[in-house]
TrEMBL record:
Belongs to the CCC1 family. Signal peptide: none annotated. Vacuolar Fe(2+) uptake transporter. It catalyses: Fe(2+)(in) = Fe(2+)(out). One of its GO terms (cellular component) is vacuolar membrane. Keywords: Ion transport, Iron, Iron transport, Membrane, Transmembrane, Transmembrane helix, Transport, Vacuole. It comes from Aquilegia coerulea. GO terms for biological process: intracellular manganese ion homeostasis. One of its GO terms (molecular function) is manganese ion transmembrane transporter activity. This is Vacuolar iron transporter.
Length: 213
């Protein structure tokens, strides 16, 4: 009976250890999947933040010397298109280079079968380019929408600044959550950076016009 009990105990222990190992593997897999998704989402947030700050700074810079809404919205739209195209092309080239490196690695290891290539999670340059352009556009639309329907010059500048501030706060918070960082310090850093960009652009543009440089 003692031997039988010992065998039963060992079997139970092995089953428990196996179950724990499976649980750990499943947890690691979920953690890896979360990490992969978080990287893409965080890149999207950074792209949107780039579009927001770039276009808001351009519009406020032009608004420092031109009071008509047409000039502000036109420069904002031009910046949106140029920035989105630049982001898409840059991301496409970068990810395509990464794809070439990974395919070359597969070939060097003589593992170039169609099944293996399909099984590998290879980067998609077109997907990355579209995601980057879309993220930039989403951020750039915020100051444009804040300005396009407001005729009064001072109210328009205030609306662009206010909408940009709110969006910066949101993007900073989302980026912190995805990066598992403290939310308030992240929001503060993003806000201060955005305000500095808008303030410097406004001040330098005004200075250039006033001094006739």
């Amino acid at each position: 009976m003692a031997i039988h009990d010992q065998i039963s105990s060992n079997t139970t222990t092995m089953q428990t250890n196996h179950a724990e190992q499976l649980a750990i593997q499943e947890l690691e897999k979920k953690e890896f999947d979360y990490s992969q998704r978080a990287q893409w989402l965080r890149a999207a947030v950074l792209g949107a933040n780039d579009g927001l700050v770039s276009i808001a700074s351009l519009m406020i810079g032009v608004g420092s010397v031109r009071q008509d809404v047409k000039a502000m919205t036109l420069i904002g739209f031009a910046g949106l298109v140029a920035g989105a195209c630049s982001m898409a092309i840059g991301e496409f080239v970068s990810v395509y280079s990464q794809l070439d490196i990974e395919l070359a690695h597969i070939k060097r290891n003589k593992e170039e079968s169609d099944e293996l290539v399909k099984a590998e999670k290879l980067p998609n340059p077109v997907q990355a380019a579209l995601a980057s352009a879309l993220a930039f556009t989403m951020g750039a639309v915020v100051p444009l929408l804040a300005a396009v329907f407001i005729g009064n010059y001072k109210v328009r500048l205030g609306a662009v600044t206010g909408a940009t501030t709110a969006a910066l706060f949101v993007f900073g918070g989302v980026g912190a959550v995805l990066g598992r960082a403290p939310v308030w310090p992240s929001c503060l850093r993003v806000l201060v950076g955005g305000w500095l960009a808008m303030g410097i652009t406004f001040g330098l543009t005004k200075l250039i016009v006033l001094t006739g440089v």
